[in-house]
Amino acid sequence: MLQGKRILVTGGAGFIGSAVAHHLMLETGADVLVLDKLTYAGNLASLEALERHPRYRFAQGCICDAPRLAELFEIFDPDAVMHLAAESHVDRSIDGPADFITTNVVGTYTLLQATLAHWRQLPPARAKDFRFHHVSTDEVFGALGEEGLFTETTPYDPRSPYSASKASSDHLVSAWGHTYGLPVVISNCSNNYGPRQFPEKLIPLVIIKGLAGEPMPVYGEGRNVRDWLYVEDHARALALILERGRVGETYNIGGAAERRNIDVVTTLCAVLDDLAPQKTGPHRDLITFVRDRPGHDFRYAIDFSKLESELGWRPRESFESGIARTVAWYLDNRGWWEPLLQAHDAAARRGLATGGR
After folding, report:
1. Nearest residue to 18 via CA among 85, 115, 111, 107
2. Among 16, 115, 177, 178, who pairs with 184 as Cys (CB 3.0-4.6 Å)?
3. Does 139 participate in catalysis according to the annotation?
4. CA-based Rg of the chain, rounded to a whole angstrom?
5. Is 162 a residue of the active site?
6. What is the pLDDT of residues 283-293, one digit of tens each?
7. By three-state DSSP, how is residue 196 classified?
């Protein structure tokens, strides 16, 4: 049971992190401290519903700041850490990999050291129950062909600066478990979508472009395949792994919803036609094929049978129901995403391999 547990959530003002914070606070009864640097992808508006809750706290800070981490561990005295703080956009990693190495690798190391120091001084019963849950991605496994699924034993083969930095962080977490005995669990998820996603990612970007009557960009020929996971299903899985997952294990989390990118976009067009029809014609007329991302992995697909058999988890949302909920949320929450377009140039094209700085 997570009720009454004190859980430190890094990156909790981000897309997945805010969904995790909501789930922990409203569904499990845990006490939550959100730590977030509030970069472009961190948004306090995503946590407004929790601000007045007596079991919720927020702290601004960077996971690379060891003194700040030590201060927060002493004040909050957590029973668990859920580590979601990361630079996460592949295109941005192509243009500027340094931020990804700093946050995802150095930041994870710094957080592991702070967690280890905290864990070592806990009373034996609390130390036994303590968990460090590292949240990662299926992109560390590289690319699949037309068939097959990523399992927990698939060899790592990262192809982008982002996935390489996440693979590095996965290995660090595993090493701190093996070397120092820190009770760790790792999860690797497929592509998330849903409310409060920063509008640089495919689904929110296409929704927003469609609402504005602007061209909807699709990389290459749109044939790249991803498995899509509704973010609230992901948050539920993460809490379950934190509560009942076996120490030292890795769990894959997938949505059982493989789709080509072009099929994702045409589905979005159909929902937009239904919920926000435009006078100029169907939204599919706005689909525009653009230059592909360098090194664009062809296909990802997740085998989550371990999570299902051990912990009884399955996604509740189908791709169709999740997309409908997502489009409806963006229609109803312009006040959340419109300021991001102006402040961060969120819809700009990135990742054309002109960077590497």
Report:
1. 85
2. 177
3. yes
4. 20
5. yes
6. 999 999 998 87
7. coil
